[in-house]
Amino acid sequence: MFNRTTLVVLVAALAAALGFWAAQHRLAADRAAAQLQAVRLFPQPRELPPFSLQQSDGTPLVPGELQGHWTLVFLGFTHCPDVCPTTLAQLAQAQKQWAALPEATRPRVLFVSVDPERDTPDRVGEYAHAFHRDTLAATADLPALEAFARSLSLVFMKVPAAPGAPADQYSVDHSAALAVLDPKARMAGVIQQSGEGALDARAIAADLAALAKTRP
């Protein structure tokens, strides 16, 4: 049997070991963050409120579905003339560079259409998968999309069609930035685009590959 003194010593040793492990883990994460080129991590990840989107295969996309992987979230719509196709094409280049990483920790891309009036889940899936088959694709009703975008500090707004044009020829203004979610599905950072659809696919690929080796 352990006496009281022995127990106190064991508890103190365990606490010290856990503290050392946490410090080493934090140091490794800080080193990885300092070397990032495209991703800007926040000092502390932010918990997201509950959300539920509909994936292209008809299944719900809830926070639990995004756990275990670093995920890049991009808002757009399938009728987007420039930023969306350019961004998805550049992200597809990064995704190809992740192909050799273990599937269990491989970074993911989530494309969310903010145009539910025209974009069905099927259509969103067909559009996103044309760039890369592994891209997650989802949408939802307008209130759910607004709440989801707001939780990521992203915005979108419907722009009416030009005078004389058919009503369904409207556009949607939306944030070009990408939200970065950590493996706990928390808002961990952001990738900003410089100019119209200007992303560095190689830098993004390298950053997410490095982050995939760290566990928050």
Description:
- This protein has 216 residues and is α+β, with helices and mostly antiparallel strands.
- It has one domain (35-212): Glutaredoxin (3-Layer(aba) Sandwich), CATH 3.40.30.
- Helix content is 36%, strand content 21%.
- The protein is built from five helices and ten strands.
- Strands 1-10-9-4-5-6-2-3 form an eight-stranded mixed beta sheet. Strands 7-8 form a two-stranded antiparallel ribbon.
- Helix 3 (121-129) links the parallel strand 5 (108-113) and strand 6 (136-139).
- Helix 2 packs across helix 5 (201-212).
- The longest helix has 31 residues, at 4-34.
- Mean pLDDT is 86; it is low at 6-31.
Main features:
216 residues, alpha+beta, Glutaredoxin, eight-stranded mixed beta sheet, two-stranded antiparallel ribbon, 21% strand, globular
How would the blueprint of this fold be written?
Layout: H1 4-34, E1 40-46, E2 53-55, E3 60-61, E4 71-76, H2 83-97, E5 108-113, H3 121-129, E6 136-139, H4 142-151, E7 156-159, E8 171-174, E9 178-181, E10 187-191, H5 201-212
Parallel strand pairs: 4-5, 5-6
Antiparallel strand pairs: 1-10, 2-3, 2-6, 4-9, 7-8, 9-10
Helix pairs in contact: 2-5
What's the β-strand tally?
10
Secondary-structure content class: alpha+beta
Number of helices, where a helix is a run of at least 4 consecutive DSSP H or I residues: 5
Helix % is 25-40%
User: Biggest sheet: strands, sense, closure?
Assistant: 8 strands, mixed
Give the ordered list of helices and strands. Answer: HEEEEHEHEHEEEEH
The CATH architecture comes to 3-Layer(aba) Sandwich
- N-to-C terminal Cα separation, in Å? 38 Å
